[in-house]
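P.,

For your records, the input lines for the assembly:
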Amino acid sequence: MIVFVLQLVVAGLTVGSAYALVALGYHVILRATRAINFSQGEFVVLGGLVAYTIVHVLHASPWIGLIGATSAGFALGWIYERIVLRPAARNGDIAVIIATIGCVYILLYGHALIWGSLPQPLAPFTGAQGQAIHPGGVAIQEQSLWVFALLALAFVALWLLFDRTTFGKAIRAAAVNPVGAQLVGIDVNAARAASVGIAIALAAFGGTLIGPITLVGGTAGTAIAIKGFVGAVVGGLDSPLGCAVGGLAVGVIEKLLAGWLPYQAVDPVVYALLLLALIVRPQGLFGRKDAVRD
Amino acid sequence: MIERLRRDVRALPVIALAVIVYGIVAHASAFGLQVGTYAGIFAIGAIGLSLLLGNSAQISLGQAGFFALGAYAVAWLTTNGGWSFIPAAAVGVVAATVVGLGVGLIALRFAGHYLAMATLAFGLIVYGVFSQLDAFGGVNGITDIPPIDIFGHALSNARAYWFAWLVAGLCAWATWNLLRSRTGRAFAALSGDPLAAEVAGVPVKRYKLLAFAYAGALAGLSGTLYAGYLGLVIPSAMSVQLSIDFLLMAVLGGSGNISGALIGAALVAGLDVAGHTWENWRLVAYGVLVVCVVIFFPGGLAGIYVRRGRSARKAERDVAEASAGAGAHAETPRAHSVSACAPQGESPLRVEHVQKRFGGLVAVHDVSFALEAGRLTSLIGPNGAGKTTLFNAISGVSAPSTGEILIGERSVTGWPAHRVVELGVGRSFQNARLFADLTVLENVVLGAFRLERSAFVADLLALRAARRDEHEALERARATLRDLGLERRAGVYARDLTFGERRRVELARAMVSDPWLLLLDEPAAGLNAAERATLRRDVLALRARGVTMLLIEHDMRLVMSISDRVLVLNFGEMIADGTPETVRNDPAVIAAYLGDERAAGDARDQT
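Structure tokens returned:
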């Protein structure tokens, strides 16, 4: 029984890592542009597909795939901010939401045109597909270990970037007070584009990490986007730590539910968790109360 | 009439004609009729979402959830329960409305992206529940639903087409009635400036809820027709994609417009069917289209041909109409007395030990005073003294941290602003908060909101009671505009007014419901000498009518010459209270306020 539960927890933490990266992406974009990017989940899928092309079509190493997908994510995010988010923001908050939903369609059905609509397997970073270690009888895929390590690395890198570098402080200043930031010589538009670039890079990074475990492509993006949001709300959208912990927690809850509930009942329960979290503690476990109504 | 409704006036007859012509032309083609019928069915839900999105400024990505409630009600009740279509559909619509109210209650707590995600989750939950429950056929859904049956007539092909568009037309008509009644103005106000709407007397939360319930009801109605027409209900047809389709319909056509929703529904339904073999390309094209529309044509496709020049000409015609109306109804008796709900007794408003903290900052500290009925009291003090904070506490904009506000014998502490307004309290803002997209007349009519009593159903069906109410409110507004010499500006949009005019219109909005208490926040700020003289005359006229007034003002000459009594606030504390003469000579006031060289200079500059 305990092994069974631990097994579910490990599986949950693995998918939860992707949710955590999506949630962090929401946090970064929200902080820079005050918008939520509904297509964040599609960028996770796209990242996995870019890595797939690099690894399986160009026959490069999975590490090149990871770096390539993440860089492509950053570039796409930069462009995305310039041609979609920024122009839409002139017409109000609801226009931004609708524009990002429009991009869900472009990305979701666009990648089906390029890569086909069936999910593809992606090679793990080390070892053979599904190769696992068995501490105490719990099977942990090698890829899961990479997922945990690289999630931690990404989190620390984000923290260093935003809290310890002038560049990060410039981005934060641009978000908090655009006019003031401009007056001290910060290029606010570039700061926003860079933030969105970082957020999309995180999504693509996440897609490549969990690709070898979940397959890449297909229609998983919407579910990833919502579950990432559930994680962000549970943990606190304005707190990076909250987003990471919340994302992991949602992954674990999902897999534990899957241990007992029929497959199709799991997602509705996870979504109901969002409504519950919004009603009971909208600022999240790690968030401040005044951050909710924007 | 709200500006964008004008578009509907021109577009709806054209659309009606197009529906009729299409029905006749496509008569022989089963496929053509099918596309047209789906367009009609989806148009119903699109109208609801368009109202929610464009008029109440709320978003829903879960309309498929309401649609599914309607569809499953018909499917289950007609197959398992043996019901006929109409009662089954009624159950479906009621269920969707009730659930819409529930979702609306959640929506009240959030805005923007939280709401979008919450409604998305709602739609997915409904989808998940229906695909899980064996009673509803699980993922296989319910089949063999009998065709729509209206008093023994089974509807299919051409009949179904005409019926779907008949229902869509009725919904369009009802929505049209709603939007040009006071409900429409309430929506325009709350989506423009919720706080000012609340202070004008609009119960903002109630109207936001109403919009959600209405959008839910129409999506549910859409679902009932869909189930009856298709004869088959499967959960996968009611997934996120349908919610997004509804959003596309509302946005592509132009949200907030009935004609926009109809055009959007026809476009999406047409493309859905026509582009079936091009599945992925079609959906990518939707994405590109919707991104382009929200960026380049925020008014939607229906709005592309509307030129600014036309609406300006129409506005001028409105002015003419308004003046003509003013002439024709000049005899309308106008109660030049204080409204009957004025509390009796010596002090209609008492403020007792009110304190207001913002975090560690104490903006108002233990302030108490009582106003005397029919007197003009001024509240003065240096910037940051807590005057406006006190106004906000009294008018229900933000409740005091401790202490009590009493109107008559009733404690109104913590009441929402629109309920304080209902007691007959009017207020203006320091920066004249008008609704930019409404005309002067419409802005002022909103002030009479608390006096209008027509029921929602009466508004919806444009019953005589609603029209009479509307007429009376308009008459009142015109009379008030006449009193203030603004009748020639009645048809001008508030955004085109000068600052001084905006202040006068705001005063008109506060006066139109004949309040017995007026709270005026720096009414003279930013006015030129002539405008100040007019203001002084208006204020004195109001006092002559017996209106109790509390005035925040920095213009000392004005304050000292018209006030019966002056209260002085400094750093959140009351430091003086008396006649202008005593306050002027009060050493504490001179030290704190007039004695300071710079403050005195400021006061001189402003006069």
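Two observations worth noting. The two ends of chain B are 39 Å apart (CA to CA). Chain B touches chain A at residues 53, 57, 59, 61, 106, 109-114, 116-118, 120-122, 124-125, 127-129, 131-132, 139, 240, 244, 247, 251, 279-281, 283-284, 286-291, 294-295, 298 (CB under 8 Å).

Regards
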